Amino acid sequence: MPFDVPNLPSAEIHVWRLPWSTDAAEAAPFRTLLAAYAGPGAPEVARGEHGKPHFPGDAGMLGFSWSHSQDTALFAIGRGPVGFEVGVDVERIRPRARALELARRFFAPAETTWLEGLPEEQVLGGFLGLWTAKEAVLKAHGGGLSYGLHRVAFAADGYDLSPGVFDGDVGPAEAWQVAPVTLGENLVGSVAWRGEPRSVRVFTFPV
Questions:
Q1: DSSP state of 48
Q2: Domain 4'-phosphopantetheinyl transferase, which positions (predicted)?
């Protein structure tokens, strides 16, 4: 039986929360959601220059991405001009004793300074907020982590993050929208896309 998904207007990004395990069958909900949004007759998914999956031709108006962390996965999808891309990332909050060390190694200096100024109990949340925002942008771009986390720098205003300076063909930063995905106490997620601001709607895939 076909799975029904909400209408996807161009002013929205839809993010689905799904259960995840290492079982290959757990990828089935991704395919179910993608088929439901793409509709009958959609072409086979192709791979871009950096291996990012996408629809070729006119079907490329649908951009999609997925991510998983331990037992939770996210699937994000949006509609735009041909070539529209979206990226999503999720991380589970768990002790990371080396968070600041990793930030000093991979983040921009201003980002590390911001993290160092946070109360100790908020450093991990700030670190994961930055990490997921960066990875969401790099997934949408297609370069992934190998492109360099330091090349996607964010500006912090209090606890709010906004695109700061994006290097290379990811930029300019002003062309990007990055939004947190509200998932509850133990998860941090971000979704990113190029273009105008949109509403982000979060759904839960039925188990």
A1: -
A2: 86-154
**Radius of gyration (Cα) for the chain, nearest Å?**
17
> How long a stretch of residues is the chain?
207
- Enter the DSSP assignment of 104: H
Distance CA 207, CA 71 (A): 13
Cβ atoms within 10 Å of 206's Cβ, excluding its own? 7
Residue 3 within a domain: no
CATH of the domain at 140: 3.90.470.20
Residue 16 DSSP code? E
Contact in structure between 9 and 70 (CB atoms under 8 Å): no
Distance CA 90, CA 68 (A): 6
**Domain encompassing residue 121:** 12-204
Helix (H) or strand (E) holding 178: strand 176-181
Residue 181, CB-side half-sphere exposure with 13 Å CA sphere: 33
Task: For residue 78, give the DSSP letter.
Answer: E
3-class DSSP assignment, residue 56? coil
How many structural domains are present in the chain?
Answer: 1
